[in-house]
Design goal:
alpha+beta, eight-stranded mixed β-sheet, 11 helices, globular, plastid, nucleotide-binding, chloroplast
Length: 423
């Protein structure tokens, strides 16, 4: 490309200038191409299309209208994809009950047939929109038929029933969810920072690492972190993961169904940011086969009884219940999880239930502080990165608070757990 000096100039691109041209450096013949090695420049002029587009995207409409833009967000037919569309609403909007229901073409999302395609969106949670700013909002919705019945992929409805149960409400369940994910290069679906068709050095230097040869995608991670804080999501931290190109962020502590609402909205925001950055977000629990860590969604959980003095007894009771419903939990903890839960790479075998203090190779991990203080929380390390947080959080609450095993089963499980160190 030849640039006319009189009309344009080139400037380095900052992390928030997504609409850029990517000029790759010349590579030696035969050398592998890595997505981590490129030079970014922006073509800028007063009258350029990019410049005019950015001006409109950054336009503050607040002084000129009494309307806002609401982005309705819902879960698509795969149970893991997020969909959204926009609608103009009068300002202000402070509660989901003030937002009208809407509909979408379910036959285009794998959630309805063409002859009866309308699916109804029920607004359930509101977040500030970090992309449009102002009073504009993101709206987490769930999906129903015209008759008001939840469609099969609507897992929020069942979760809401569990979290509204008086026994669950009284226990004030807290959740802290650790969402792991992987960045992939757009056109080759290979991890960001990896040589195309090749592999980086073995795992070791990448976890919480810094440097151009260890950390890939940090600007996207930081942009997501700030966008979540702006939106009102209770994001509590982030870090680079063991496999290069893989990251994690944590949401919580959140009470009840709020945890899942926050995770879904944070996933949507991350999808939007990676879209702008030209990178693919993967929630595959084992994106690369071989000696590489998978991606999970470890879920930390506690009840009021667990957090109070003497709560270790409630934690032990919950572990016994979880051991008895291991198969039910595994079946609901994400697709492809059998490729991740192999007993290697900080996981337990998918067919075996286990627990341990500070042991990352177990199904359930109890922290050293929890053991020392005699109260606290447990960490369920089984959920995959693509799990549905409505399903996982509700199932943990149901099994730990509502479900009662037979006396015989509980006694046998308690004996087995005692033999394994649960004393």
């Amino acid at each position: 490309m030849k640039i006319a000096e009189s009309s344009t100039y080139r400037i380095p691109t900052t992390s928030n200038m997504w609409n850029s041209s990517l000029w790759r450096q010349n590579k030696k013949k035969g050398a592998p191409t890595s997505s981590a090695k490129f030079r970014v420049v922006a073509i800028k002029s007063e009258n350029s299309t990019i410049n005019r587009l950015e001006n409109l995207l950054n336009l503050d409409i607040t002084p000129y209208t009494d309307k806002i833009i609401a982005e309705y967000i819902w879960i698509g037919g795969t149970g893991i994809d997020v969909r959204s569309k926009s609608r103009t609403l009068p300002r202000p909007v402070e509660h989901p009950s003030e937002i009208p229901k809407w509909n979408y073409d379910g036959s285009s999302t794998g959630q309805a047939t063409g002859v009866d395609s309308e699916v109804i969106l029920y607004p359930q949670a509101i977040f500030k929109d970090p992309f449009r700013g102002g009073d504009n909002i993101l709206v987490i919705c769930d999906s129903y038929t015209q008759a008001g019945e939840p469609i099969p992929t609507n897992k929020r409805h069942g979760a809401a029933e569990i979290f509204s149960h008086p026994k669950v409400v009284a226990e004030v369940p807290w959740f802290g969810i650790e969402q792991e994910y992987t960045f992939l290069q757009k056109h080759v679906k290979w991890p960001l920072g990896w040589p195309v068709g090749g592999y980086p050095g073995p795992q070791g230097p990448y976890y919480c690492g810094a440097g151009a040869d260890k950390s890939f995608g940090r600007d996207i991670v930081d942009a997501h972190y700030k966008a979540c804080l702006y939106a009102g999501i209770n994001i509590s931290g982030t870090n680079g993961e063991v496999m290069p190109g893989q990251w994690e962020y944590q949401v919580g502590p959140c009470v009840g169904i709020e945890a899942a609402d926050h995770i879904w909205c944070s996933r949507y925001i991350l999808e939007r940011i990676t879209e702008q950055a030209g990178v693919v977000l993967s929630l595959d629990p084992k994106p690369i086969e071989g000696d590489w860590n998978g991606a999970g969604c470890h879920t930390n959980f506690s009840t009021k009884s667990m957090r109070e003095d003497g709560g270790y007894e409630a934690i032990k009771k919950a572990i016994i219940n979880l051991s008895l419903r291991h198969k039910e939990h595994i079946s609901a903890y994400g697709e492809g999880n059998e490729r991740r839960l192999t007993g290697k790479h900080e996981t337990t075998n998918i067919d075996t239930f286990s627990w341990g203090v500070a042991n990352r190779g177990c199904s359930i991990r109890v922290g050293r502080d929890t053991e020392k203080n005699g109260k606290g929380y447990l960490e369920d390390r089984r959920p995959a990165s693509n799990m549905d947080p409505y399903v996982v959080t509700a199932l943990l609450a149901e099994t730990s608070i509502l479900w009662e095993p037979t006396l015989e089963a509980e006694a046998l499980a308690a004996q087995n757990m005692s033999l394994k160190g649960l004393k």
